[in-house]
TrEMBL record:
Record protein name field: TIM barrel protein
Xylose isomerase-like TIM barrel domain boundaries: 24-225
InterPro entries registered for this protein in UniProt: IolE/XylAMocC-like (IPR050312), Xyl_isomerase-like_sf (IPR036237), Xyl_isomerase-like_TIM-brl (IPR013022)
Organism from which the protein derives: Solibaculum intestinale
Amino acid sequence: MARFVLTGFTDEYSPALAEQIECCKKLGLAGIDLRGVYGKNCTELTDEEAKALKSTLDQEGLKVTCMGSPLGKILITDPFEPHLELFKRTLELCKLLDVTRIRLFSFYIPKGEDPKKYRDEVMKRLRAFVDAAQGSGVALLHENEKGIYGDTADRCLDILTEMDGGMQAIFDPANFVQCGENVRTAWDKLEYFVESVHVKDATNVGFVVPAGYGVGEVDKIIRKFSAKEGLRYLTCEPHLTLFEGMKSLEQGEVQAGGRFVYPSAKDAYGAAVDALKEILIKCSFDEAKGEQGTWIR
């Protein structure tokens, strides 16, 4: 039986932890893909903050489902050693938070240069992440992202094949659209490696819109993803408003919302989750009774 777990980058709803918890309870999410909390990025938490966060979420019946880190979001020409140390620190935080998944990237390529020029260095750095995570019980999830080495399906496949089981994939339809990739072709190439889908859609001119309103074929991707047995993650990362911290996470101009306008970030996030649920219902999924954020078919 296919089972989807709905999670989200709830810092797009609010930077405040209490309101991120409200987001999960109100919108029916199983947990938080942690990115921003306590006014800082998740990789910058102290031990005390991590313990306090886990205690609060435990009391609310929630959990951190993934560390939504910016690891790998530096130029491939930037020094790597400090970044590797940040990765190792993030592994320590995963242990404190009881998190078994880290989202990461494959390094920005200098503008105008051929990514192939940097392939060996990209693989060397990603292999260092994989080696450092050995025995930790933490899965490393590579997300396709504009401007990094793994921004096309072919280069994502290159990474995942080279890592030989040490890394799985997060599939982001909107990011592929914005890179000029055919989303269904990308899925066919990467399906074997996909562990979770970031629910985000975009128009053919790159504006981010709710799932189902762009050309990212999110409904078709979810149908294909549902063919995989077992627990699978659908993570709301709608980018429909310019939330706190977004500009520091993205290179270049952010194009959020398009023709969709919302009175607040909370309204935008609610619309994004509603759009996802509409797709799930069309795909014959129902909410599992007594299991918040779990949908079954």
